[in-house]
Specification:
mainly beta, 40% strand, disordered C terminus
C-alpha cells in the first residue's frame, strides 16, 4: 500500500539506486530517495544483504513495479531549518563541495549551506574558494539567510572577523588625509594601499585640478608613496575614494573674480572641434571660443581661422557655475590685443595692411 512502511533486504546495488527484496516482490529505491543529503553512490549507505526499513512511494499493480523511499521514513530536515539555524547564529559544518562561486557546507544530514566567495573575506577578492578552504575541512561560519522553501542557507566566513571597513570609517573619516603606497595603476586611476587590507582609489579626474592626464602613469607608478584626502567610504559596496587634488585649494573657486567679463588674455589653441576651438590660457585652464566668436565674418570651418598650437588673443565673455569659460577672438584685434567689440562691424572686418 502506498505510504506504508515496509521492511526489506538489499538485493542488488546499481549506480542509480538499489533493488530491495520485499518478500516475493522487488522494489526500486532510487538514489535521489535515499537521503535528504547528498550521496555519490548507493554503496555509501548500503551493502547487499542489509536489512532496511523503507516507505512505499508508488505501486503500479499492472506492471508490478514498486518505488521506495528511505529518506521519506524520517522528517524533511528543511521543514524546521529556520528554527534550527536562525539568522545570526554561528554554526559549524563540513565542506562537501567547491564551486567557482563558493563552497557548500553540510550543517547536518540533508542540510547544506553556501558560503559565496564574496562572503569569505572582507578585503581579499577570492577568485576561487580553494584559495581559503578545501573539501573535508571543518569550518565555522555565520548564518546570513535561510530560505526553507527553496532549500537554501546563505553562510558567511568573514562575518566572524572584525569588519575593517568599520575601523576605516573611524580611523580615516571623510576629509582626513592618508598616506600609502601605490599598489596598481589602471586606465581610470590609481589604487593606494593605506593598510587594513583596504585599497583606496584615486580616480584620474582627482589627480589634479588643472592638468589633464591621458593616463595616471604619467604621474604615478607602482610603489610610489602618495598622500591623499579621503573623499568617500561606501561600506555597502566596499569602495574607498581618495583624491590628490583636494589637498590643494581649487584654483577655480574664484574664477569669476579672476576672469571678469571683458578681460583680455593671451592663450594657445589646444583643440579644434566642429563647434569651436579650445584655448588654453595661463598654462592651465581651457576656454571655448565658439565658431561664431572666431572672426567678425561668417566662418565655415574652424580650421579656416585657427590651427592647434596657434597663439591667439581672446576676451572673456562669461564664466558659468561649473567654471567653464566662454571666450571670443573676434572681440580682440589679433595684432594689437585691442578690444574692438564696440567698433562698427565694417571696421572690425577691415583687412590688415598688406593682407
Amino acid at each position: 500500500k502506498e505510504g506504508s512502511i515496509v521492511h526489506g533486504v538489499v538485493k542488488n546495488i546499481t549506480e542509480y539506486g538499489a533493488f530491495i527484496d520485499l518478500g516475493g516482490m522487488d522494489g526500486l529505491l532510487h538514489i535521489t530517495d535515499m537521503s535528504w543529503g547528498r550521496i555519490k553512490h548507493p554503496s555509501e549507505l548500503f551493502a547487499v544483504g542489509d536489512e532496511i526499513k523503507v516507505k512505499v512511494l508508488k505501486y503500479d499493480r499492472e506492471k508490478e513495479r514498486v518505488s521506495l523511499g528511505l529518506k521519506q521514513v524520517t522528517a524533511n530536515p528543511w521543514d524546521d531549518a529556520e528554527f534550527k539555524f536562525p539568522v545570526g547564529i554561528t554554526v559549524k559544518g563540513k565542506v562537501v563541495s567547491l564551486k567557482d562561486y563558493g563552497a557548500f557546507v553540510e550543517l547536518e544530514d540533508g542540510i547544506e549551506g553556501l558560503i559565496h566567495v564574496s562572503e569569505m573575506s572582507w578585503t581579499e577578492r577570492v577568485k576561487h574558494p580553494s584559495k581559503l578552504i578545501n573539501v573535508g575541512d571543518e569550518v565555522e561560519c555565520k548564518v546570513l539567510e535561510v530560505d526553507s522553501k527553496n532549500k537554501r542557507i546563505s553562510l558567511g566566513l568573514k562575518q566572524l572577523q572584525n569588519n575593517p571597513w568599520d575601523e576605516l570609517e573611524i580611523k580615516h573619516p571623510v576629509g582626513t588625509q592618508v598616506e600609502g603606497e601605490v599598489k596598481s595603476v589602471t586606465d581610470f586611476g590609481v589604487f593606494v594601499d593605506i593598510g587594513l587590507g583596504i585599497d583606496g582609489l584615486v580616480h584620474i579626474s582627482d589627480l589634479a585640478w588643472t592638468k589633464k592626464f591621458a593616463h595616471p602613469s604619467e604621474k604615478y607608478k607602482k610603489g610610489d608613496k602618495i598622500r591623499a584626502m579621503v573623499l568617500g567610504i561606501d561600506k555597502a559596496n566596499e569602495k574607498f575614494s581618495l583624491g590628490v587634488k583636494q589637498l590643494e585649494r581649487d584654483p577655480w573657486e574664484n574664477i569669476k573674480t579672476r576672469y571678469k567679463v571683458g578681460t583680455a588674455i593671451d592663450g594657445s589653441v589646444t583643440k579644434l572641434t566642429d563647434f569651436g576651438a579650445f584655448v588654453n590660457f595661463l598654462g592651465s585652464k581651457d576656454g571655448l571660443v565658439h565658431i561664431s566668436e572666431l572672426a567678425p565674418r561668417r566662418v565655415g570651418k574652424v580650421s579656416d581661422v585657427v590651427n592647434e598650437g596657434d597663439q591667439v588673443k581672446v576676451k572673456v565673455l562669461g564664466v558659468d557655475e561649473r567654471g567653464k569659460v566662454r571666450l571670443s577672438m573676434k572681440a580682440v584685434d589679433q595684432a594689437t590685443g585691442e578690444d574692438i567689440s564696440n567698433k562698427p562691424r565694417e571696421e572690425q572686418a577691415a583687412p590688415a595692411a598688406g593682407e
